[in-house]
User: What shape does this take?
Amino acid sequence: MNNALAGAAGALIGILAGGYTVCKSGRAALAVQKRRAERAEAYFHTLNQWLMIKNRGINIEQFFIDNHYARVGIYGFAFLGQRLAEELSGSSYVETVYFIDKNESYVKGEKNVYAPTDDLPEVDVIVVTPVSSYGVIENMLKQIIDYPIVSIEDIVFDLV
Assistant: This one.
């Protein structure tokens, strides 16, 4: 009888511990999914605003002209950074001097791409394209450079 009771108690403790572990890992997975959804939403709103101003005939280049930013560094080599570089490539005023990206394997072999820890050439402004990480990136960059840092999100919402 005592062996049966001990076995049942052990099984119950195992079930409870397993349930706790599953619940805890489930909460962590939900938190990761929530952060991804928030990041995707921020990108969506930025791209939507960018398309709205473009449909109104406003080119993003105007922000750089208005602020006298001729030489630009772009933080983020993912799709927003590449779209910004593409839009600025036809400009007679703005030159994309380099990209900054922390993911070395992602940008391997690309020219004019620096790691955030590299000695960055001076430009008039650095545009941060990972909008959901802007605050963290801005704080990190402020420790190594002393020229303006702006978010692509702020640029497209300022051009309305």
Summary: The chain has one domain: 1-160. The CA atoms of residues 98 and 111 lie 8 Å apart.
